[in-house]
Amino acid sequence: xxxxxxxxxxxxxxxxxxxxxxxxxxxxxxxxxxxxxxxxxxxxxxxxxxxxxxxxxxxxxxxxxxxxxxxxxxxxxxxxxxxxxxxxxxxxxxxxxxxxxxxxxxxxxxxxxxxxxxxxxxxxxxxxxxxxxxxxxxxxxxxxxxxxxxxxxxxxxxxxxxxxxxxxxxxxxxxxxxxxxxxxxxxxxxxxxxxxxxxxxxxxxxxxxxxxxxxxxxxxxxxxxxxxxxxxx
Length: 233
Fold this sequence. Notes:
This protein is α/β, with parallel strands linked by helices. The chain has helices spanning 23-34, 51-62, 97-103, 107-129, 153-163, 179-185, 217-232, and strands at 7-9, 43-46, 66-68, 71-76, 79-88, 93-95, 141-145, 169-178, 191-198. It has two domains: 7-69 and 136-232, 3-Layer(aba) Sandwich (Rossmann fold), CATH 3.40.50; 73-126, Ybab, Chain: A.
């Protein structure tokens, strides 16, 4: 595995755990990494749920707007907790081809499981936006944010989806990631900023944080509402 030349990390954080008190502290640290690297008219796109507080705190520090891109894991037919890929609202589907081959999943099963996620994506977007129109991404520097990358497939689906809207530049910024996930992502984006890169057979995003939990949709809505109100002022 070799990290691409467009990957910037923090060498003193490599392979360490429990680096960040919470997602907001991680976001502020990422903002320091991004400062001077993005233009004032850039847009941060956070992946709910965990990416939203990270994105919110980046935007607080840098004074740039926040929006969301909803991506859902495509679950295995007999194990909803495990996934073999990810899908976005426009139907962009990214598969873990090795896992698909190992499990012998048919095209019919793959499409059916992906389609089952699309309605959920629509419902979550309606809930989060509360009538707010999606941002125009054309010609903008976009910063895609999550709280970490384990396999990278969710982020890859988001990247491929927003590329269809002709942004000027696509940047990925995450507090923590497995090195193999960055190998998946880096060839398809302009830059990757990751504070904490880890390797090895065992990886959990949560291990980068002291306080980590699954956010509920109301918490996500609250972060977005606060960000949009501040932007309106």
